[in-house]
Amino acid sequence: MEIKILGSGREVGRSGILVNTGSEKFLLDFGIEVQHGQKPSNPPMDLKGVFLTHAHLDHSGCIPFLYKKGYKGPTYMTRASLDLCDMLLRDSIKVQKKKGQKPYFSQEDLKRMEQKTITLPYKKPVKFKSCSIQLRDAGHIPGAGQILMESQGKRILYTGDIKFLGTGLTNPADTDYKDIDVLICEATYSYKDHPDRKELFDSLKEHIQYVLYNNGTILLPSFAVGRTQEMIQELSYLGFPITMDGMGIEATKRMLSNPGFLRDARKLKKAFEKARKIRRGKNRDSVTDKPGVIVCTAGMLQAGPVVTYIKNLHMREDCSLVFSGYQVKDSPGKMLLETGKYINEGINVKPRMKMTFMDFSAHCGRSQLLDFFRKVRPKKIILVHTDHGPEFGKELRGMGFNVEVPRNGDSLRV
Ligand SMILES: [Zn+2]
């Protein structure tokens, strides 16, 4: 068998892995590098199937492009991933146009992909001539799966993005594996551990109370898929007035229509019903009149309602901006954290509001990765989706693991 890395080799983003069993070819994920819009290398078009781990654009963002290029076969994913992909991919066309980039696909290509999509529950193998493939819970966002492939007596596991500890929103990832021959594993956070989630929420709640007590507003920019829902769910029962704005509203609806992929659908539903939702831009001014918490997109401050809120609130020292997730290089959020300046969509300001970064993450940290490797003991580990691959690979080899850290374009025989 051969595994070819089309994207996410020694980089975070634009995942794309081609597996050739000798007689059949499969593509696992086909995403985009979100900030600059780069795609992975093209796979051959005679694929037997495309399997998607989860809806995030760095894993899904180029799949409709395959249909544009003439691929006519199926794409497999969970129902929750399909509903979230539909929203994110549609939006990505708009965003790319706005950035002056040429979108890789059209609405029609997306529609073609959706018509050819076959949805799968976890643990239901799809049988092909040379292999069988199934999805296992990845714990990363609702509907996220790991891909387990069995072919010619070999078991290959591709993690996609993975979180071993559950959150309020997701169950812990499935780690119940035996006899894995090849583990293709994300290693985004091979170099650090994330703080304890409960402690993080405790300090966030304390911070919110302090700001509200001083009549301020807390701006909580959050990714539409995942972070938004976890935030409203965990904060809603504390009695703070919460307002939602942006694509997180639609994402929540789509998640609630797939309750089986949520850890506690009732809790999320209750929180969602309770939150105030802003559906028109002109209502934004009224939100900041009174103290409260605003959960809005975009998570890296690059677009969406957060831009208006920053414009309205940046001079107010009684207000606070809380970053709750990863800020990619060159994003306005990352620049604000590094320079104290917010430059985006014609705005160039030095906000006076308080700013805090809290390391909520939907990925596993270093210790959990090591625990996973020790538990599963795969015969070979292939590290992808990481900026720290060579160092981590060396370290793992020192622990007795057989590790490869391929570059984009590399092929590995297994
Ligand atoms: Zn992801």
Q: Which features does this protein show?
A:
22% strand; 31% helix; Rossmann fold; 7-stranded mixed β-sheet; Metallo-beta-lactamase, Chain A
How would you describe the overall organization of this protein?
It contains 13 helices and 22 strands. It is an alpha/beta fold and 414 residues long. It has two domains: 2-192 and 362-413, Metallo-beta-lactamase, Chain A, CATH 3.60.15.10; 197-357, Rossmann fold, CATH 3.40.50. The strands form four sheets. A seven-stranded mixed β-sheet has the order 6-5-4-3-2-1-22. Strands 7-8-9-10-11-20-21 form a seven-stranded mixed β-sheet, covered by helices on one side. The chain has a six-stranded parallel β-sheet with strand order 14-13-15-12-16-19, with helices on both faces. Bound molecules: zinc ion.
